[in-house]
Amino acid sequence: MENRYRFIRYFAYALELLILYMLQQTPGLLPPLLGARPILIIPAVLAIAMFEPEVPAMAFGIFGGLLIDFGIGDALGFHGIMLGVSCYLISALCANLLRANLLTSFLINIIALTLVVLLQWVFYYVLYEYEEPMYALVYHYLPRIAYSLILTPITFYFNRAFAMLIQPAE
Prior knowledge:
By secondary structure, the protein is an all-alpha fold. The chain has helices spanning 2-25, 41-51, 54-72, 78-96, 102-126, 133-150, 152-165.
């Protein structure tokens, strides 16, 4: 019986990530903030990781990261690896050390989003020796982090509802 609820919950998470991917990739759907568009998938997979065991959290992190990689069209697996490791660590921390609440979600999103986006900037701009990498950081990547952080409460409460409502009765 528990496997059926787990399957339904995981199916709902996968469907959520696919819908967020479509929303993220649809041109003109989400208005740009200071010229940047949000990354909808990262706050969602981080919220999923707060409520699921380590291995499924890592799997959803890899899945979400691969969706981001498909959307960007660059190195396949870059975001998959980073989000897979991040989600595994977040799931382990939330299971053993942290409470899954909105403040924790904000802190996790600030750290993980900043780390992922700054590493993306380093690998795609700094190491390729583009001119004016600081311009790209200040006017493209930092607004992208801020815009994505705005979505943290929505993804947290949405995934919390999935985790709490779709579970076997005790």
